[in-house]
User: Which sequence fits this backbone?
């Protein structure tokens, strides 16, 4: 589990295609100091497991499955690209963003980037199965960054990036046409499932009552 508060921007040292997946090496100056093999790290919003660490070179390695490559933008990474990094949440940390699982649901496409004073307004085209959970002032993870939804449109949503977020993450350098990993708010999905279950139960009770069983 993560918060969507990026602690470091890492750099892709190498990415190697293998059968049914890839091996990804990332340079890290900060979070690698407290990382062990087996730890979970959010890489552009994708929860990956550290498989090797080279502390001398400040590199950790991840094994990325074919399923992850298919459903995220990690398959498009190349040497020298920057990625958002966040270690897993611990119980003694402040929850500054929102609850993020690291299970990316789909890829969005940046449709518009507008500079408004010191701020950047970005419109992101979004799959409908993710957009259904977007509400104004609600939360969404974009490349692992916890952001607040501003507008919800027919096939997209907008976010406004403050100068600190633009500086401390990769979102400030995004351009029209770039792809971003998206994860909707998990709480919204649980609420929907619970409401649907109660509706089904209520419908069953009404049918039983109608036919004289209760």
Assistant:
């Amino acid at each position: 589990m993560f918060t969507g508060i990026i602690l470091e921007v890492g750099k892709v040292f190498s990415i190697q295609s293998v059968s049914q997946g890839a091996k990804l090496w990332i340079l890290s100056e900060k979070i690698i100091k407290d990382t062990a093999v087996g730890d979970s790290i959010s890489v552009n919003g994708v929860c990956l497991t550290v498989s090797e660490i080279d502390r001398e070179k400040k590199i950790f390695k991840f094994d990325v499955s074919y399923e992850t490559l298919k459903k995220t933008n990690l398959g498009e990474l190349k040497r020298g690209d920057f990625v958002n990094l966040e270690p897993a949440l611990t119980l003694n940390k402040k929850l500054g963003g929102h609850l993020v699982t690291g299970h990316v649901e789909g890829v969005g496409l940046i449709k518009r980037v507008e500079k408004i004073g010191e701020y950047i307004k970005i419109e992101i085209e979004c799959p409908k199965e993710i957009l259904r959970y977007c509400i104004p002032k609600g939360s969404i993870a974009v490349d692992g960054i916890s952001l607040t939804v501003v507008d919800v449109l027919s096939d997209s949503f907008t976010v406004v990036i403050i100068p600190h977020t633009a500086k401390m993450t990769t979102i400030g350098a995004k351009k029209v046409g770039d792809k971003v990993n998206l994860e909707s708010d998990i709480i919204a999905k649980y609420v929907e499932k619970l409401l649907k279950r109660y509706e089904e139960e209520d419908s069953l009770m009404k049918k039983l009552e109608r036919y004289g069983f209760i």
